[in-house]
Design a protein that fits this description.
Layout: H1 4-9, H2 12-36, H3 55-79, H4 85-113, H5 118-121
Helix pairs in contact: 3-4
Length: 139
């Protein structure tokens, strides 16, 4: 007697449906991931965070945020070199990266709306350290 279960599993139609369903899951996951990296990433930052900052405070916050973005980009690139690196990079750093980029973009918008000039954004001149009296040398 022939076992019909074995023949039904080997039909090409079932295999194609399984492949199609897996492909649909991958496409859905990819499209949802693309949504998270778009302009809606501003949901990570409170809109009133930098409302009371002056230009000097905005410059400091911008520098700190930009340094963090650069650090996260470096960490993501390093993670992607290993096996399964894209997955590790996405799980470990993607949310922080998107949040920090949104924060940096919000600071840039606030700098523009405050009409801060380059002079306002420059770091303050270093305070001159008191000079020590000259040392007398023995002859």
């Amino acid at each position: 007697m022939i076992d019909r279960r074995d023949r039904s599993l080997s039909r090409p139609g079932i295999a194609l449906r399984a492949i199609a369903s897996r492909l649909a899951v991958v496409v859905l996951a990819t499209s949802l991931g693309a949504c998270a990296s778009g302009p809606s990433s501003s949901m990570f930052v409170d809109p009133a965070t930098y409302e009371l900052y002056n230009c000097q405070q905005l410059a400091t916050a911008r520098t700190n945020s930009n340094n963090r973005v650069i650090e996260l980009e470096r960490l993501m690139a390093k993670a992607e070199t290993g096996a399964g690196g894209s997955l590790v990079s996405g799980l470990a750093y993607q949310t922080d990266y998107l949040s920090e980029r949104a924060r940096r973009d919000q600071i840039d918008e606030k700098i523009t709306s405050n009409n801060c000039s380059r002079a306002d954004l420059a770091p303050p001149a270093a305070l001159a350290a008191p000079t020590a009296p000259p040392v007398k040398r023995r002859r």
